[in-house]
Amino acid sequence: MKKFLHLIVSLSLICGVCAAVLAYVNRVTKDAIREAAAEKSRAAVRAVLPSEAVSLEAIGEDVFVGRDASGKPVGYAAKGVGTGGYGGDIVLMAGFRADGETLVAYRTLAASETPGLGMKLNAPEFADQFADKDARTLAVRKDGGAIEAITSATITSRAVCRALADAQARLASVREGH
After folding, report:
1. How far out from the chain centre does Cα 96 lie?
2. Is 96 inside a domain boundary?
3. Distance between CA atoms of 135 and 1, rounded to whole angstroms?
4. Contact assessment for residue 145 and residue 139, using Cβ atoms and an 8 Å cutoff
5. What's the rounded Cα separation, in Å, for the pair 171 and 73?
6. pTM of the predicted model, to two decimals?
7. Whether 101 contacts 94, CB under 8 Å
8. Sign of dihedral through CA atoms 38, 44, 45, 51?
């Protein structure tokens, strides 16, 4: 019984020390992690807007308008989430032309797809085929659409289409109220 009690006390102390260390590390790093994520998002917004955009303005949560030198809107960027990817949700930043419907490009903010297969969602051979398409009507060829799915990663390809449609829907919602 004494050995059992000693074991419980030892394990409790070890767990308490580990929990305290983890709490400290979390407190020290959370601001840096948040800032890195915000910078990644800002870089993605700049990358997906039309090249004419010289200024950027947030018009909603994760929705931005890019303006030219005269202040005229030349494009929009919006975050979209595609549920049901092979490794979970796919989060993208999508860029649209001034009409708010025609895609310019996208950048991946978060994805946990299979390396070498699903992570090819970032490859130009796959991503470039979305340019100048309407995000509301995207579908892979297997589903009757114009998008050539990533070989052996149709689930990922479908999730990218859903993420881009979600981004366009978020943008349309914000533009209606703006």
Report:
1. 15
2. yes
3. 67
4. yes
5. 14
6. 0.81
7. no
8. positive
